[in-house]
Amino acid sequence: MNWRPAVPITFTFMAMLAGFFSLMMTAAGNYYQAAQLIMLSMLLDGLDGTLARMLHATTKFGGELDTYVDMTSFGLAPAFLAHQLVLKDAGIWGLVITCAIVVSGVSRLSRFRVVDPFRGQRGYLGLPITTCAGWIALSVLIAESGYISDDVFSLSHGPTATFIWGCVLAMVLLQVSHVHYNKPTKGLRGMAPAVLLITALFFNSRWAVAAAFTLNAFGFYFAFLSPFFNRRHAMLVAYEEEKEDEPAPLPR
Length: 252
Description:
This protein is an all-alpha fold. It contains nine helices and two strands. It has one domain (6-244): CDP-alcohol phosphotransferase transmembrane (TM) domain (Four Helix Bundle (Hemerythrin (Met), subunit A), Up-down Bundle), CATH 1.20.120.1760. The chain has a two-stranded antiparallel sheet with strand order 1-2.
């Protein structure tokens, strides 16, 4: 029996459970812990693919399972967290933003399965769902940390709230756009800074807030600035052109 595929799949299941527990924490009103669990799921989700490639243990089952993890941890969990903490009191706009997070996430993941034969290893068509999820989770973590005054950093009112939720709306649009993004990390060495920063979120709150600001700064750069500096991967472009050349299926 080949044990190697079991290692990354175990990490994938742990990522799924972290997303599920995030939903439970949100339902219980523990928003800080819910945000931490979304980020933990993101860390585990990144490690499972890296381990699968290192161990030469990639499987179709693992690839399919990863999609469901993404929807739970980075689609439903951040939408539910945002709604329960802030958006439920924002009237129709709060409902619109909540639904947009979910619908855009589903659409992004569905298209990812259809048009990307490389599973993101050679770049992305549209903003990865983890960027918006991380932006929401980290913003909640900062706001709920107790180290920053509500007058300075609020998710419910003022210019900060307008900026945070405006970025969320822009991100959900970018998720279903045709903007091309490079893969930000490759291998354990490339993931090391992210691992350290996400780990810091679970220690002293001052360090957690500093790490959260750093990660959100990178998320902002990746979402809105990096496409201007990155080149589309030739293999992904070729695949898209090949798909465009295929005849459209007849309606049934």
